[in-house]
Every structure is written in structure tokens, then in C-alpha cells.
Amino acid sequence: MGQLEPLISQALGRSPYDDVAPGDPNAPADPQSDNPQMYDERGRPVNEETRRINRDIIRSHNEVMQVIGVAEPDTGAAETQAQALANAHGSYENSVGNNLDMLGGVLGTSIAWGVSGIRQRVLLYDLYSQVPFHELFRLHRQYQSWPSYLYAGLPSFIVGTALLPNQLSRAIDSILGSILPASLGDMQFPYLPSSIVKYIRIHLEVFSLMQRVGIISPTAFLPGLAFFWPGSTSSPFYIPPLPSPLTYETVLQWSLPFACGAAPFVGYFFYGIAMSRVSSFFTRNIEQRLPQPRTPSWRVPLRELPPPPPSVVPGGLAEEQPRNAGDIARDESISRAAHEGQPAAGGPPAGPARRQSTASARGDEFSSDDEGGDIISATLISFDVEASEANDTHHGAAAWSAELRPNMSENRAAVAQEPRYRVNALTTLPSRMAADFLGAVATRIVTAPLASVIWTGIANCYLARGDGLAFDALAIFGFTVSALPHWSWQRSRNLLGIELVYFTLRFGAWGLTTSLAKRYFMSDEEWEKKHGFTSEFLED
Length: 540
What we know:
mainly alpha, two-stranded antiparallel ribbon, 54% helix, disordered C terminus
């Protein structure tokens, strides 16, 4: 353009008839002046103060557009990184919580195994229910050593636990996956039917019980095959020999001892079901009453939102302009579609259409890299204003209008003020473990009388099967087992004392796992600081 001053002024956005600012444009700017305006070689302002003002203006404009619901904020790189960091934080807490949950389960099972042997003897033997509680452990030490006490029935218990449906499938898959080559890793192996697995598990549980109370030698590793065959000399399921003349009278006489022999074993099966139901009932109700983190829903139901304000109608307009049946039907369809969340046919959409933030593409050949970065970092939100329907009667020409949504800021503020917690395996661990061991204690106390009757019936059935089920008092290693054990106050005190020991040990295990959970818990600020990410990135 050379020295043509009018064209230069017009290129800089000024009128060619404006007065020329005095001074040398090539002279450096004075930093001591009140407004140190700087320009680049093309005559554009490049000082940081102007850039900051432009960014503030664009940011305030965008915030207004987002508040009134016209535009939605774009997810920037900082927000994406923050979301990825939050997902990693949740995965970390779930992993730590699951590991601590497994540790708590192992500790709880070990404590129950150490205490249940004495509890079973108190419910089964009269001698253990006659001595005071402080002499109970000394009495047991006279008949069995503690290593033998802990080992008795342990192999059967481990095998029976491994036969649970989920543990069985995972154990078989892991074992076969480590033995077979990788090409056979996806093969489906047939498992035993659930009825056969339950039958084997019940026999293993009965065998472990008899080892713990001293009816079967505690040194036996696993039961033999004869133990699983009903009616054999080693089976707890007693079947009397068939009568020689098969008549109605002999079969009826034979069915009575058969029912007596099968009753304890069948009773033990239903006792396991009752234990599971009672334990689930107590655990579920206790967990509902314990304090635990809960996250309310972000979404507010439609019925809780306030109705939209009535539209302001000019005076006399509603009375002067009649409405036909088509307009009424269209309004009803629009109202019904708004409640159902679907656009009505022939009417406007149920909600205002939103536009994502877009940067106006400039084809200016004089744009520089610095200016392009400013455009991307400070994007101006724009929206289209559509023309409303022409109403020549009252307005003459088409009036331009932009309809905004009802203001829901009060409801959103009420929802935002509610405390929000991270709900995962780590934060819910204390309440879940507390409900677990409190429910176990309540279940053991409630089902103690039923367990005493069932265990006594199995012991008598196993020991008296050679005598035709003579349900008399039987001597077992110097102890007496009655067919129907009488309940005494001393037995109740000993039982409550054992349950108190169990509760104390389980409470200690709960405290240990809770302390570890608190040790590995990290707040959002600590997690961001550990990974070198702070909230300042979001502000930039």
C-alpha cells in the first residue's frame, strides 16, 4: 500500500477522514506511559493487556450463554485429563477395597474356625455345659492339644469351601489353565451337577463336624468313599436292613427306623438353608441402619421441577384472537410431548436446540500463530435467532425473538448443595464388614438351639447305627451325648461367653481392616498432587 494514508487508516479499522494520530509509528512504545499500546508489523495490537481484556469479554459472554441454557460448555483438554484422573482414582479405590475385603473375609473365617470347635462341644456335650466359663478352655486342654484342635476337620472344610459354585469354577479354570496349553484355554469343561456338589459338600461338612467334636479321629485327612454311600458302616445316613418277608407290616416297621436315620441328615441340610436365610436377613437389615456413603442422583425428576412460568400475554390479545380446533390440538400434542421427552409432530421441539461452542473460521491471510492460539483458547459462543411466525394482525412484520427456558437455578442449587461421596469398595468397606460380623454374631445366637438339636441327632445316628438307632445316652470319649440335650443356664452362660470372645476377635479384625482402609485412602487433592495434576489447570 506504500504511503497511501487513507488506505492504511481504512485497513486499521479507522475512517480515512479521521485525524492522524501524531507521533512516529516506528518509535518504540514508552513503558512508563499510562497506556503502553504496542502494535506488530501489520498494525495490530499485541500487548498483553488488550489480550487479557478480550479474553475476559469473551469468557463473560460465554458464561452468560451457558447460564441461560443457549450453549453447552466444551470439554477441554484439562477437563478430559481430570476425568481420566478421577476414573483412575476410582479404579485404585475399588482395587484396594476388594483386597481389604478379601483380607477381612480370611480373618473372619479364621476366627470363626478357632472358636466354633469349643462352641460345638458346648452345644453337644453335657460336661462342657456344666463347668464355669473360665474353666472351659482348661478343660478342653486336658483332652486335646491346641494344634490338634485347629487341624481337626480343616482339610474337609477347605475342600467343601472350594466346592462352592463360584469358587469351584474359578479353581477349576485356574488349575486347568495352568496345566493345559494356551490353545485349549477357551474350552468349556463340564462341571458336576449342582445336586451332586451339594451332596458332597454336606458329607464333608458332617465329617468336619464329627472330627471337631471328637467322634471321628482328628488325624484323618478326608473321608473315604464309603462315607458318601448311604447305609454303609461309615456313612452318617443310617439305612436299616430290609426285612426278609416284604409285607405291608414289615415295610411299615422298616420305614420308621429309616425315617429316624434320615431325619438328622435331612435336618442338617435344612439347617444350612436356615442359617443362610437368617444370616442374610440380619446382615441386610444391619447394613441398612449403619452410616455409609450414599450418592444422590444428579438428575432431578420431572415431577420435582417447578412448572414453567406462564407466558405474558398483552392485554386483550387472548380475548380478541379466537383459537380454532387445530391450534388447540397442536398445543395439547406439544404439551404431551414435552412431558414424554419427545418432539410433537407439527410443533416445535420439546426443548431448545443447543449449539456447541464453535470458533469462527477466519480466512484472513494476515492471521498469525499467536492470534490463532487466542481464538482457540477463548472461543466466542454464538447462536442463531430464528424468525417467529408472522402475525400481520397485531405486529405487522415478522418479529425476531429468542425464547429461553424456565430458570431452574433454584432446584440445581438445592441439588448441588447436597453432600456427595465417592461410593466404591474402599469407602463402603467399614459398613459392609461391620454388618457382616454383627449379622454373624446375631445368627449364631439365634440358631444355637436348632444347631444343638441337629448336631446331637447326627451324633446319635452315627454312633448308634449298629444298635438299631437306640437313642440312649451315649459315651463319647468320656462325655455324654443325650438324644435331646437339656438346656441349662450354665450352658447359656458358656455359649454367650464364647460368642463374646468371637465378637471381640471379629471387632479387632474389623478395626485392623478399617485402619488399613484409612491408611490407603486418598482424597482428591492428595491423588491429584501425587500424579502432578492440580486444579489450576482447569482455571487456565
